[in-house]
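Friendly challenge for the regulars: who can give me the structure tokens for this chain first? No prize, just bragging rights.
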Amino acid sequence: MTGFISKVKDKIGQQDNFIKAISLLLSGTVIAQGINVLALPMLTRIYTPADFSVFAVYTSLLMFISVASCLRFEIAIPLPNDDKEAFNLAILALISNIIISFAILCAVFLFHDDLITVINQPKFSTFIWFVPLGIFFIGLYNIVQYWATRKKNFKVIAKSRVQQSIVSVAFQIVIGLIITGAFGLVLGQIIRFSAGIWELCKNFIHDTKESIKRVKLVDLKKTFIDNQELPKYSAIESLANAAGIQLPVVIIASLVPGTEAGHLSLAMQVMALPVALIGSAISQIYLAHATEHFRNGNLYHYTIKSIKQLILIGVIPLVIISLLSPFIFPIVFGKEWVRAGEMTLWMLPWFAMQLIVSPISMALYVTKKNKVALLLQIVGLIIRVGVLLLLSLVSINYLFEYYAISGFVFYFIYYIVVLLHTKQV
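First reply, four minutes later:
Bragging rights claimed.
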């Protein structure tokens, strides 16, 4: 028996690092997403589609701005061989996050009424003040999460995601039962990104306590210059990407009467579950190991391997969810959510391709193809937002359908470009 156990331990010890890391992250992420899934039927009965429409506008603005609040210095934290340079990147990201969050707060203070008029959402007048706070917490979480990725401390990352889901869902349910409107949804979203930060921050401080004492402006300046392509190209690229995803939601909310944006918000949450569950986990793992494979000239094969994993454990569940959604949405979420179930079928090609592309897109950063990534996102912005605005001048009847189709077109183009570039290195 002892010999058998020893053999099993040896076998486990020989597992591929990729599979080990995915298993570790998924152990926490599955629980976190399971909590979100169980909560949705309760939330759709506590909050109305109109509440979800306001929530959709808040979330879209938050996700749009926050992707560049650290000027993308955070994504480079796992890459340097030297911890000192990685620490300087983290400090630059934190400084950027504070400045941009404060700048957004000033913009809301100075142009509050004008912004509400443009958005055409009077109920959003109060909630817009929460946008700068949400941006700051998202930026801070990303910084310490990428530091944990550098240290391959995936267990702490997984634990933080569970904490986020538990606290966020609890707030949304309790506050929704006490106060009518979208306040509980918005506050829960802020809590989602602030919860789980503490342990990641403790680990970061523990790892860098000596570096914190010796931080120098001259070193920060050098690191900024060495990584200036991140704010010059990657930040703009990430903004273009987020704009392509999030701004159409705001456009639909402002132009289409009724609760179309609310239904879209629920449909996107359901479709995003496999992407968050599988795609984000593999993104962390892919980035942690891609640099090594790039140095060994094996990045293309590593990318193909990642794609196969994504199709097997991500795309297939996504297809099943989409095909069943028109039938199960009215049962699970309530009769008033039929439209959201129909939307998921339209979004299947888009989210399936996004699930594959999002993790492997990091290859463009590893291979220093920042300009290519920027060009792709600009093309995507034109396809997804520019054409949508032109279509809205003709008719507002099919804005969502075009939004769903354009998502697939963009990610398919991105997929081809990433494969071509990884094959050439």
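The first helix runs from residue 2 to 13. The radius of gyration is 21 Å. Your move, everyone else.
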